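Fold these two proteins, one after the other.
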Amino acid sequence: MKIEGIIFDLDGVIVDTAHFHYLAWKKTAATLGFELTPELNEQLKGVSRIDSLQKILDWAGIEITQERFDFLTSDKNVDYLAHVATMSADDVLPGVREFIAKLKREGYRVALGSASKNARHILERVGMIDQFDAIVDGTNVSAAKPDPEVFLQGAELLGLQPQQCVVFEDSKAGVTAANNGGMVSVGIGKQEHLSHAHHVFENFEQIPTDFINLLTSEEVK
């Protein structure tokens, strides 16, 4: 089956908001007396806000009231959005604009599949919201990655079968979600973190110009 749709995660793939999430979660963890290390933070990438806080609480061995839980998730988002407010077109990661422009010139359909409830706002901040034929974000899905719901919705909005889609992800959970959905997964980042992806590149500038055209559905198992 021919590849016709490309689905991108947002944080750490289109823009480097992954670092903003880390700074905000690190501050939240510190209020709980817990140090969130970069290594542990890898497990929060692509994970919803609620599930991320629960992971931190589990690591810290802490139980809190629902009221406190709700406050901390809200406060984290305020912190994160303060960083987002400083973003501009310069914050799009190297090679991304050119890569998406090439895909669209060649007739591929392009979607965003992100756990972030702030995805549309971020795309507007960096001037890229009009580059996507479909957008699925945290306001549209009920199941967090590694559940494939966000990507399956993206494929559906593009009018395609999952096997016709390639997903670009920077997180373990996101790559697993793409694999669970029966799509070709491309990891953006370190091989040691994303070894379960079908393909891994450190960034978009490393991707061969004919990479998508060479992909076939036979690679999806």
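Now the second one:
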Amino acid sequence: MSPAVKYTLGRIGLFVVVALALWPVDANIFLKLMLAVAFSAALAFFLLRGWRDEMAQQLAGAAERRRTEKQRLRSALAGEDDSAGPATPDGASDPR
């Protein structure tokens, strides 16, 4: 399971647990839900730190791969990439 999915399910699970814990409290339902959001966010900050760090590493790796691929494509379009082969002025590959 990907770290992003684990973290998201953990956040949702914490929200549900806190909301159920607040259910017997005599208050407006919207107040209970707002409190559940606030408390679950605070708990997630401490309890889900490992999963949040894993997700951040995964996102950083994906961003680095996109950045590398973007630079490789820019080099190829600029004619700086030797693996692209010679190109004609109209942008098509040279049939030689």
